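In the design runs reported in the main text, the only information available to the sequence generator was the tokenized backbone. The following block is the verbatim input for one such run; it is reproduced so that readers can re-run the procedure and compare outputs position by position.
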């Protein structure tokens, strides 16, 4: 029986390294995926596969689609396709670096490393704005139901957001709480939050059908830039897409107040294959093992 990649369902690690690869032209995609199978267990390292390798093999993965660029009043959501995404989970930055280098070297004939970003857990699970992130995440059976399809596959939406701390710090504490819809001091939800508040925009039960996702986001920092690596797993990409459309105001013209201090600079959807006998189950792409 195939199962989900274990790292998807586990609590956040202290540290992460996110690797985004493109596909080398004219390369042997099946050979590259076979290398991946030998190196990625789905637990310490989680893999997501984009459309390019799937279509290069002449295959289809039902539910895997391009990430749509969106535009709302004053906001743009970029789409930046990725052929292979690896989420390295760990607790030692040096070990993560060396694991990443081994993967980069082994995959190099087929997958070219385009971006490598280090993530970390901050203040017990807060975004760099200081707000607790993940409070309304489904847990246990509900997390499985939200994130994992019947065959053990999952889909992930990955977006790197860059925070503008100057803008954030220029706001009064009450304005900041109104952006999120929760109080930073005690994480209480605000009864009188404006319609633009992030938790009002994304309230998972308020969509029809309900739009539950399993968020596994972490702060990142690179030189002088920092923000949130937003990572949301779903049994399909539909719940994420419904939330994103509402955030940019495509439902009612109201834009999520988060955009007052942060913007996404990347955006992609990937398919996270299931695991069978401790290895990624790529039979959907490579034929039966
Ligand atoms: C920099 C970007 C973002 C930041 C800083 C952020 C932060 C937060 C915070 C602080 C909460 C409240 C606590 C919690 O329930 O986790 C929250 C809730 C939530 N966020 Fe975000 N978020 C970001 C982007 C997104 C995006 C892009 C989506 C989806 C398109 C999203 C979906 C959600 C959902 C579904 C909830 C829970 C809503 C509920 O059911 O109450 N977030 N976020």
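Verbatim output:
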């Amino acid at each position: 029986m195939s199962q989900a990649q274990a790292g998807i369902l586990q609590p956040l690690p202290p540290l992460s390294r996110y690797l985004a690869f493109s596909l080398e032209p004219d390369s042997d995609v099946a050979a590259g995926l076979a290398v991946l199978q030998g190196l990625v267990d789905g637990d310490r390292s989680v893999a997501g596969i984009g459309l390019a390798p799937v279509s290069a093999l002449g295959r289809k993965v039902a539910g895997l689609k391009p990430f749509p660029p969106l535009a709302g009043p004053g906001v743009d959501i970029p789409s930046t396709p990725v052929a292979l995404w690896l989420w390295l989970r760990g607790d030692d930055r040096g070990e993560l670096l060396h694991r990443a280098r081994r993967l980069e070297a082994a995959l190099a004939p087929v997958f070219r490393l385009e971006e490598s970003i280090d993530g970390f857990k901050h203040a017990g699970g807060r975004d760099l704005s200081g707000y607790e992130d993940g409070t309304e995440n489904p847990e246990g059976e509900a997390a499985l139901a939200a994130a994992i399809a019947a065959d053990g596959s999952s889909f992930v939406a990955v977006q790197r957001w860059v925070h503008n701390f100057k803008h954030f710090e220029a706001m009064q504490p009450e304005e900041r709480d109104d952006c999120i819809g929760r109080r930073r001091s005690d994480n209480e939800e605000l009864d009188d939050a404006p319609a633009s508040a992030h938790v009002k925009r994304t309230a998972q039960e308020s969509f029809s059908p309900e739009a539950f996702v399993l968020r596994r986001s972490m702060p990142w920092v690179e030189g002088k830039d920092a923000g949130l690596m937003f990572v949301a797993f779903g049994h399909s990409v539909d719940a994420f897409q419904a939330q994103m459309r509402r955030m940019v105001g495509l439902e009612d013209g109201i834009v999520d107040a988060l955009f007052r201090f942060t913007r996404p600079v990347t955006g992609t959807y990937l398919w996270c294959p299931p695991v069978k006998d401790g290895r990624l189950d790529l039979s959907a792409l490579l034929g039966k093992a």
